Amino acid sequence: MALIETEAALHEAHRDNHTHRDVSGGWLRPAVFGAMDGLVSNLALMTGVAGGAAERQTIVLTGLAGLAAGAFSMAAGEYTSVASQRELVEAELDVERRELRKHPKDEEAELAALYESRGVDPALARQVASQLSRDPEQALEIHAREELGIDPGDLPSPLVAAGSSFGAFALGALLPVLPYLLGATVLWPAVLLALLGLFLCGAVVARVTARTWWYSGLRQLVLGGAAAGVTYALGSFFGTAVG
């Protein structure tokens, strides 16, 4: 009795610990990329303009214009990318659906051969393939996963991708502008807030990717700071040259 209880406890512990993070990136990629891009691009844009000795009003207008333009560009690009990917997948599913309808036995034999190649006994592989092929929709789902590596019921949504990209970019791009909107008249509060945002974004991403939080945060801070520094130097150079 004690042995049974021990095995049950081990099973529960294994089930609780044997979980995986979402690695498909369906929501993570556009959100993280959008926020990082918004922070870095708008910070660099504003520091470049500030380096050219532009007035406060010009810097604020540049930041707001960069926010709007970048957010719409990100959303449009993400929507087009995901929609094109989804259309390609749906086209391949239509091909597989026609093959299942026209040549069901060949597709069943193909599925059995696939299981057999993975070490399943030939007789058992044929039996499993036969049972799975009785339902056309289930057969389509199995063939799509085994041959195409996709789940027909879990295709990415272009609207979700576009919306998350738009919101994340706008939120990230707002940080460098925020100090000016609250009354700042110099650049350094915007730079500090943006760099803090980059560090926090990197640290949050580390919670999902299981990387060290400080390393991920510092990496984003250094990359964003380098971009801001380069554009400020370019702005100063070209501002002086034009002036």
Structure in a nutshell:
By secondary structure, the chain is mainly alpha-helical. It has helices spanning 2-17, 28-51, 56-102, 104-117, 122-132, 136-148, 158-181, 188-209, 213-242. The N and C termini lie far apart (88 Å).
Could you walk me through the main structural features you see in this protein, from its secondary elements to its overall organization?
83% of the residues lie in helices and 0% in strands. It is mainly alpha-helical and 243 residues long. The protein is elongated, with a radius of gyration of 26 Å. The N and C termini lie far apart (88 Å).
The tally of beta strands, per DSSP, is 0
Q: Which value, in Å, is the CA radius of gyration?
A: 26 Å
Helix and strand succession?
HHHHHHHHH
Distance separating the two termini: 88 Å
What percent strand?
Answer: under 5%
Class inferred from helices and paired strands: mainly alpha
List the uncertain runs. none
Shape: elongated
Q: Mean pLDDT, nearest integer?
A: 85
Layout of strands and helices, then pairs:
Layout: H1 2-17, H2 28-51, H3 56-102, H4 104-117, H5 122-132, H6 136-148, H7 158-181, H8 188-209, H9 213-242
Helix pairs in contact: 2-3, 2-7, 2-8, 2-9, 3-4, 3-6, 3-7, 4-5, 7-8, 8-9
What are the salient characteristics of this protein?
243 residues; mainly alpha; 9 helices; 83% helix
